[in-house]
């Protein structure tokens, strides 16, 4: 089990090392340099790993992302009888989402857990997950994600990008919080909603009559408080952990996009492992994915209860309104269909989208 990186940690360009330090990496730099020596060629004593492989995320500790990462690391350790070790570095300790993707494909960090949104810049076909309102429930979504035909298509996207996809979990759907009750398509009209700076997300909200406003997430709470924006959209976990519901009267279950979380590994690292060790990673990822999904469901129920106890009302949209939203968003479907591999589009939407 040996990984020959294209460059050792000490040989990483000075500019990149300086960027790590500026991101608060100084506190763990000594430990990571030791871990880095593993990336350049694992050190073993009687087949036992001397240093842990880094697994990095840009998410805080109290998230499904952290649960996913820690469960995977624990299962790798268990299934290998302690021979393979992984150390989890959360909360952008080793860099933000873009930094982590670059470091992973470069071979500096083997494992990353993150949502699919920042990956579209690197792998355009992942925009398939920006198709709005494809699935009405998580069960149907997960069945499609796990479908062998679709999984094969998505696997190839990551492989072509220099990664290997080990698993996809989720934090449920993204929902809308607002100070105006939404029961019909007309109720979206004119609402200034904060979104990520994603062209497909912006196009979706415009299509249904809202006024999307890209904004740094750090500014969202005060933006709601000062009425710079009327609304925002995120998974339940993010809405509660950042107490955004304190500034909102309603949470509307638009369920417009799934918030998917991927577990990826540098493809060369993965391919250079023995068959036995690849099987360990695959099995550990499968167990961690299932557990992360279970925990996501439990946590969503808890977050909904906390929101309702605060006095904020949760609104479920009726099927007719959801159908109308899909109809209004047909232009977004066309944009994405033209931008990505048609086989991936078909594999994701087959039997669901006309």
Structural write-up:
The longest helix has 35 residues, at 275-309. 42% of the residues are buried. The termini are far apart. The chain has helices spanning 14-22, 29-39, 64-79, 97-106, 138-146, 148-161, 199-207, 220-225, 236-241, 267-272, 275-309, 319-328, 330-339, 342-349, and strands at 44-45, 48-49, 53-56, 86-89, 111-115, 163-178, 192-195, 211-214, 231-235, 250-266, 313-316. It has 354 residues and is an alpha/beta fold. Strand 7, helix 7 (199-207) and strand 8 form a beta-alpha-beta unit. 45% of the residues lie in helices and 19% in strands. It contains 14 helices and eleven strands.
Largest beta-sheet characterization: 9 strands, mixed
Mean pLDDT: 89
> What is the distance, rounded to the nearest whole angstrom, between the alpha carbons of the first and last residues?
47 Å
What helical percentage do the residues reach?
Answer: 40-55%
The total of helices stands at: 14
The succession of helices and strands, N to C, reads HHEEEHEHEHHEEHEHEHEHHEHHH
Overall 3D form:
globular
| % residues in beta strands | 15-25%
Number of strands: 11
Q: In terms of per-residue confidence, which ranges show pLDDT below 50 for 5 or more consecutive residues?
A: 1-46
The value of Rg in angstroms is: 21 Å
Structural class: alpha/beta
List the helices and strands and how they pair.
Elements lengths: L13 H9 L6 H11 L4 E2 L2 E2 L3 E4 L7 H16 L6 E4 L7 H10 L4 E5 L22 H9 L1 H14 L1 E16 L13 E4 L3 H9 L3 E4 L5 H6 L5 E5 H6 L8 E17 H6 L2 H35 L3 E4 L2 H10 L1 H10 L2 H8 L5
Parallel strand pairs: 3-4, 3-5, 7-8, 7-9, 10-11
Antiparallel strand pairs: 1-2, 5-10, 6-9, 6-10
Helix pairs in contact: 3-11, 6-14, 7-13
């Amino acid at each position: 089990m040996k990984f020959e990186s294209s460059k050792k940690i000490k040989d990483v360009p000075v500019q990149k090392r300086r960027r790590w330090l500026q991101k608060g990496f100084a506190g763990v730099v000594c430990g990571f340099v030791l871990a880095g020596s593993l990336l350049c060629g694992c050190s073993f004593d009687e087949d036992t790993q001397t240093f842990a492989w880094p697994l990095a995320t840009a998410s805080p500790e109290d998230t499904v992302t952290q649960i996913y990462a820690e469960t995977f690391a624990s299962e790798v350790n268990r299934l290998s009888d302690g021979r393979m070790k992984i150390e989890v570095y959360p909360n952008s300790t080793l860099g933000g989402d873009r930094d982590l993707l670059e470091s992973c494909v470069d071979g500096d960090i083997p494992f990353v857990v993150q949502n699919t949104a920042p990956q579209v810049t690197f792998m355009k076909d992942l925009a398939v997950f920006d198709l709005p309102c494809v699935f009405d429930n998580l069960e149907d979504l997960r069945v499609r994600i796990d479908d062998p035909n679709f999984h094969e298509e998505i696997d190839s996207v990551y492989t072509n990008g220099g990664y290997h996809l080990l698993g996809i979990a989720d934090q449920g759907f993204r929902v809308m919080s607002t100070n105006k009750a939404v029961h019909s398509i007309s109720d979206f009209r004119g609402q200034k909603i904060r979104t990520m700076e994603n062209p497909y997300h912006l196009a979706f909200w415009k299509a249904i009559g809202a006024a999307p406003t890209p904004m740094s997430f750090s500014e969202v709470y005060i933006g709601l408080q000062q009425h710079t924006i009327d609304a925002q959209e995120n998974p339940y976990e993010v809405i509660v952990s950042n107490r955004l519901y304190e500034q909102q009267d309603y949470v509307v279950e638009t369920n417009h996009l799934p918030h998917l979380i991927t577990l990826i590994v540098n493809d060369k690292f993965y391919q250079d492992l023995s068959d036995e060790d690849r099987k360990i990673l695959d099995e550990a990822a499968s167990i961690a994915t299932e557990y992360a999904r279970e925990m996501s469901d439990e946590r969503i129920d808890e977050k909904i209860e906390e929101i309702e106890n605060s006095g904020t009302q949760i609104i479920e949209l009726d099927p007719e309104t959801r159908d109308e939203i899909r109809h209004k968003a047909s232009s977004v479907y066309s944009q994405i269909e033209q931008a990505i591999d048609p086989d991936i589009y078909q594999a994701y939407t087959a039997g669901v989208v006309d």
